[in-house]
Amino acid sequence: MSVFDYSNQEIIRLVRPFVCSCWGHEKSFGNQGARVWRKTGEKEMPKCLKSSVKFPQSVMVWGAMSAAGVGPLCFIKGRVNAASYQEILEHFMLPSAEKLYGDEDFVFQHDLAPAHSAKTTGKWFTDHGITVLNWPANSPDLNPIENLWDIVKRKLRDARPNTLDELKAAIEASWASITPQQCHRLIASMPRRIEAVISAKGFPTKY
């Protein structure tokens, strides 16, 4: 199902639970450095120099956010399958939800990656009494946690980590610097995101 298949009532139903939603997502980060754009005369400025990494490193992480802030990061080893994803949910998503919501009810959002949509993963949520937000496929523009990953990526460019340990430390520091206010603003943008995606008819939006 795409976002265009949603009726007005379904869109209203999609928007309503955002304030009490916990958003989880995986992301890969590396220390290869980003493309540097500079103006004439800026060639030697430190901010315009791209560091050289002899042995590029990369790491996959899982994180969660809500309108109240972010939860603990999980550094992932190997590929994510249904079994390993359920371990992440058990040991990182549940503690994140407890930190962000305490005893209050919440709904969980993740995309439709195979590990997320596996029958055994669905059973895990059912067994734990957690409602999963109905979510359209191929809709990163709608997902506010993507904006948090962009914040982390920008901070990594400034940190310029060389080793895997430096990369992990920089990711953790960047993630820890994200404020509840930033998260709340992103969640509050959800109605505008949905309107923008529908208006764009499948083309990219500013989000």
From TrEMBL:
Question: Which InterPro entries does the UniProt entry name for this protein?
Answer: RNaseH_sf, Tc1-like_DDE_dom
Superkingdom assignment: Eukaryota
Q: Which Pfam families does the record match to this protein?
A: DDE_3 (PF13358)
TM region(s), chain numbering = none
Which segment of the chain is annotated as a signal peptide? none
**Which molecular function terms from Gene Ontology are attached?**
nucleic acid binding
Q: What is this protein called?
A: Transposable element Tcb1 transposase
Q: Which organism is it from?
A: Anabarilius grahami (Kanglang fish)
